Amino acid sequence: MTHLAGARVLLIDPDILLAVHLTDELARQGAPVPTVTPTAERAVKATQEPDIAAAVVDPCMDTANVMPAVEHLLDRQVPVMVTSLIPYEHQSAVVRRCSFMRKPYSPRALALRLADMIDGVTMLEFHPKPQFGG
């Protein structure tokens, strides 16, 4: 079992099918059923909930309106995983402050990454920069 046991996850994504698959995987990893928010308006309200351990966000749902929710989570020091079809290098400055996983993703891989994020493992630990020189 991962460190997702008991961890409350906020899922902000309009793709209901992906949400169902991720919810199933989080449950297998011991997390309670996540709060699923398919609209930006509901996302901002959902970020007010206490005890959010991590969040998964697709910023493409309504970029202008979902970014305040992401910024609020980051201000609360909640680890945020952004998932998108748009490559990382084309994302906004706010998204670049988050961990990133390109869609389509494996729900198991994302759940394991969330567990690491909750434990404080940073993105650089997944993809360390090469060391040059000697």
Describe the structure in your own words:
The chain has 134 residues and is of the alpha/beta class. It has a single domain, classed as Response regulator (Rossmann fold, 3-Layer(aba) Sandwich). 37% of the residues lie in helices and 17% in strands. It contains five helices and five strands. The protein has a five-stranded parallel sheet with strand order 2-1-3-4-5, sandwiched between helices. Helix 3 links the parallel strand 3 (52-57) and strand 4 (80-84). Helix 1 (16-28) crosses helix 4 (107-118) and helix 2 (40-46) packs parallel to helix 3 (63-75). The radius of gyration is 14 Å and the shape is globular.
Task: Kindly list the characteristics that best describe this protein.
Rossmann fold, alpha/beta, disordered C terminus, 134 residues, five-stranded parallel sheet
Number of helices: 5
Helix content: 25-40%
Largest sheet: 5 strands, parallel
Number of domains: 1
Question: What order do the strands of the largest sheet run in, or round the barrel if closed?
Answer: 2-1-3-4-5
Structural class: alpha/beta
Distance, first to last CA = 40 Å
CATH level 1 class label: Alpha Beta
Uncertain segments: 124-132
Strand percentage lies at 15-25%
Shape: globular
Which superfamily, in CATH terms, is the homologous superfamily?
A: Response regulator
Strand/helix succession: EHEHEHEEHH
Radius of gyration: 14 Å
Question: What is the overall pLDDT average?
Answer: 84
**Based on DSSP secondary structure assignment, what is the total number of beta strands?**
5
Please name the CATH topology: Rossmann fold
Query: What is the correct CATH architecture?
Result: 3-Layer(aba) Sandwich
